[in-house]
From TrEMBL:
Protein name (record): Gfo/Idh/MocA family oxidoreductase
Species assigned in the record: Paenibacillus contaminans
Entries under SUPFAM superfamilies matching the protein: Glyceraldehyde-3-phosphate dehydrogenase-like, C-terminal domain, NAD(P)-binding Rossmann-fold domains
InterPro entries (alphabetical): Gfo/Idh/MocA-like_OxRdtase_N, Gfo/Idh/MocA_Oxidoreductase, GFO_IDH_MocA-like_dom, NAD(P)-bd_dom_sf
Gene Ontology terms for molecular function: nucleotide binding
The GFO/IDH/MocA-like oxidoreductase domain, residue ranges: 147-243
Residues of the Gfo/Idh/MocA-like oxidoreductase N-terminal domain: 3-121
Pfam families in UniProt: GFO_IDH_MocA, GFO_IDH_MocA_C3
Length: 323
């Protein structure tokens, strides 16, 4: 079976997916739409896909077996719901949106359709991340530390809080999701964000340039995540988990894993391309009808979104937010 794929949105993240999909013999990219006509044209030239006049035209069950929705979170509308209601399996990029209530409403509809789908928390597909998750089963860390430092997205919309949600919601969400994936649920957050530099250098922006989030886990563990999207001279993305008799460190966005305990001192580097593994799992799920092959579904991704949006609210209201 050849899985016919449509793309809605053909920017940078879509190109990452197209790169790995082109390596698979059982898929064919057949249609594409992007509000940027040059993006759509380039994708068409690279894949042979037909350029469609609208997102709705891409969502044609007679033409495609799967759709990749790679539009920005503020511009996504009801695309996931439309795909699900038409019986089209879908992949949608993270984050799911900038309004938890709107996403909850979509989650309910998607859940009721039972459609095969996936959300782009790609770091879950690192073999190192899964190894850490397996190691931590039955173990209880008491402290978790996370960081995400780096640069800003070049698009103007990204620096508007109401459109992107800010660096935490859009980017450091990967570290929040990784913490949830390997260590369990988060039930309360307290956060503080600042704009010391953006107020001076980019006053037209509305997102913070740095933030610190304290969180409480269902397990009883406590933790923190520190992030900045204005760190041109130092980049870092990692989580550390401390237990009474173990230490787990996922660095370089999860591609490097260190485990230290009384019996081992192990450091390994990922062997899998998580982008390929993510797309391969989705294709296999569509072909087999087995949603269990997917490591992150809409409901699970919603929980990560709720944590990050609660952090934004906590900073604004200067109080802790219970989830």
């Amino acid at each position: 079976m050849i899985v016919r794929i449509g793309f809605i949105g053909a920017g940078g993240i879509a190109q990452d997916h197209i790169r790995v999909l082109k390596k698979m013999e059982d898929v064919k990219i057949v249609s594409v739409f992007d509000v940027n006509a040059d993006n759509a044209r380039r994708t068409s030239e690279a894949t042979g896909a037909l350029v469609m006049d609208s997102a709705d035209q891409v969502l044609d069950k007679q033409r495609i077996d799967l759709v990749f929705i790679c539009t920005p979170q503020f511009a996504r509308g009801e695309l996931e719901v439309v795909a699900a209601s038409r019986g089209i399996p879908f992949f949608v990029e993270k984050p799911l949106g900038v309004s938890a209530e709107a996403v909850r409403q979509k989650a309910k509809i998607i859940r009721e359709t039972g459609i095969i789908h996936a959300v782009g928390y790609v770091l879950r597909y690192y073999d190192t991340v899964r190894q850490a998750k397996q190691y931590l089963e039955g173990r209880r860390p008491h402290l978790i530390q996370g960081t995400r430092f780096g640069g800003s997205h070049p698009a103007k919309w990204w620096k508007q809080l109401e459109m992107s949600g800010g660096h935490l919601v859009d980017t450091a969400t990967h570290q929040v999701d990784m913490i949830r994936y390997v260590a369990g649920g988060i039930n309360k957050v307290q956060a503080a964000f600042g704009r010391v530099s953006f107020d001076r250098t980019e006053p037209e922006s509305t997102i913070p340039d740095a933030g610190t989030i304290n969180f409480f886990m269902d397990s009883g563990a406590v933790g923190s995540l520190t992030e900045s999207c204005l760190s041109p001279f130092h980049a870092s993305s990692e989580i550390k988990l401390f237990g009474p008799d173990f230490f787990v460190h996922l660095s370089h966005n999860g591609s490097h894993l260190t485990i230290i305990d009384n019996e081992r001192n192990l450091t390994v580097t990922a062997e899998l391309d998580p982008g390929y593994a993510q797309c391969r799992a989705l294709i296999d799920a569509v072909k087999s009808g087995n949603q269990a092959l997917i490591l992150c579904d809409y409901d699970d991704a919603l929980k990560t979104l709720e944590v990050t949006l609660a952090a934004n609210r906590s900073s604004e209201e200067r109080t802790g937010i219970v989830l």
